Structures are given as structure tokens and as C-alpha cells.
Amino acid sequence: MQNTAITRSQSGLRKRYLRLVAVGFAGTLSLFAWLGPLHPVCAQPPVAKDEGSEPAAQPGEAEQDVTGTQSETERQTNEPAREPRFLPPVLRPKVLTPEELDEAERLKKLSAKFGTDPTAIVGRVQLSSQYADLPQGGKVIENVARVDLPFKGNWLFRLDLPFLRWADPNRPGAGSMQGMGDLVATAGWRVYNTPEYAFFVGATSTFPTAAEDGLGTGKYNLGPLIATARFLPRWESFLFGVFQHLISVGGDPSRRDIELTRASAQINTIWAERWWTTVQGVGQINWQRSAKSSMTLEFEAGRSLPGRWGVYVRPGIGLWGRTEPGAYIWNIEIGIRRMFGSL
Predict the structure, then answer these.
(1) 238-251, pLDDT tens digit by residue?
(2) Which of 161, 224, 296, 335 has the most C-beta neighbours closer than 10 Å?
(3) How far is residue 220's CA from residue 36's CA, in Å, rounded to a whole number?
(4) Is the pLDDT of residue 62 over 60?
(5) How far apart are alpha carbons 227 and 187 in whole angstroms?
(6) Is-above-0.90 flag for pTM?
């Protein structure tokens, strides 16, 4: 008995250690991604200047400094490049040319207009439908109604209401079920925003509104959400990343608690001002199931329509952990959305 207790204690310690390492690693990467575009002055040595070497300022130049008519791009071009030396070279931001900054700003506006930027503060009404093929003959159809409401410039509130229908031939007497799922609410703030980089923080909560036990978790879940956007000048695309961690904070005590870490990375490319493509990888770790993981790979193609409308199709395949909740063998999703400005 004593050996069994010691073994369980050691197993619990290993699980907690792995959990702390995973969450800490993801948090560190998010912190690096946030600090990457910042340029701390204290990290740079002072530049020595010889007396009398600086040419006298012309009257027109002094007047321009006073009136502040220089554009932000011109100021960045005239200032010496500064890099945060406390970051590894691979994580340091690349100094962009004025042409690259203009391209980043153009693509970022289009990504917000098309609804592909997770850091954008823009309104939307969206309907999507997803079919997923599950192991052992299971099938799921999930229809989701989404509403995004921006307010106060850099704040966003989102509601997702799913309607599910699934069938599992391996469950006698309960082989199929359909109805409303758990309501998901997200609120967040865009902390940092430049043409080439953005950082968004928020919180996500789910509510046990499912019509049947098999359509929801039966729990109130809450957790942080982090989203980043970084311009890739070589590819003329944006790299988007989203990190989320959910834990149960209440609900039906007879249902299993939820503790789930989810992270995604996607490369978004705009084509000819109307089309876009996205390649996305989504990974999950389920801490309540002995830290089992899953990974899916999805490809999205969409087109902008007149009146700020857009349509898309997104097929995907499961790479591993296909039996885990949220994973699948293969799936396909279609959707239509309309974007609008801030309230």
C-alpha cells in the first residue's frame, strides 16, 4: 500500500511538472512574441558625436520638427535601427523598409476586412457549418452562430452559439443526439498594434447551456486567451498565433472537470485583393486525460464579396490524437460572414 501511494504521488508530481512546463513554455513564447517588436532604448549604447560634426539645421527643418508634419514612416526611416539585445537573434524583429511597412499596413487592413486576423478589433456576424468524421464510425455536424462586437477602439466582445448533431453507432440506445451546445463568450483588449505587429489579450468562458449532456461539458469553464499577429515580409503574409487555456470553475459535480490547453499557428496570405488562403495547425493538451495531446492541420480558402461579405471553405485532417475531444480523422467547414466597423 505504501509503495502504491508513493507511486501515485510521484505520478501526480510528474503530471504537475509537465503541466507547468507546457504552460510556462507557451507563456514564454507569447512574451517573446510580444516583446519582439518593441525597441527599448536602454538596450542600446549611447552614440558618441563629435562636436561641430553635426550640420546646422536649416530653417525649414526646424519648422518641420515643430509642426510635426513628418509621417511615422519617415521618422522610422530617419531614426537609427535599434534591436532589443536581450532577445535571441531568431526572435528579434526585422527592421522593415518603408515599402514593407506600407505593404504590412495594407495586408493587415485586408485581413481585418476579411475576418482572418484574430487581433483585429472589427465587428462580424458569421454562420459556419462543420462536418467531422470521427474514429469508429462517429460523425459530428456543428453549426455555429458567431457575433463580434467591437467597442472603445481596442476592445472586443464575442459570442459563439453552437448547434450540434452527432451519431455514434457504438453507443446502443444513444446512437445519435442533436441540439444546442455550450455558449462561449470571449472578451479582450488589443494591447499593442502597429502595421507589422499586434498583441491581443482576453478571457474566454463557456456556460453549460447544452440541451443534452452529450452536447456539452456540464461545466462553467474560464481561462486566458492570447493572440498575436506578425508580418512576414519575405512571404508577404501574416503569421497569426492563438494560445488558450481553459479550466472548470463550477457546474455539475458529477461531470468530469475540464483542463485544456489549445494553441494554433496560421499563415494568412492575401491574393489579388479579394482572395485569401490560410494554413493552420492546431494542437491541444488535455490535462484531465493524462496530458494526452492531439494535432490537426487545416487549409482555408476564402473570397471577399461586395458589401463586406465573405465566404470560405476549410478542410482539415487529424495528424494524431484523433480520439481526443476536439480532434477528428478529417473534417470540412464552410462559412459566410459579414464584417462591420466599431460601435
Answers:
(1) 999 999 999 999 99
(2) 296
(3) 35
(4) no
(5) 12
(6) no
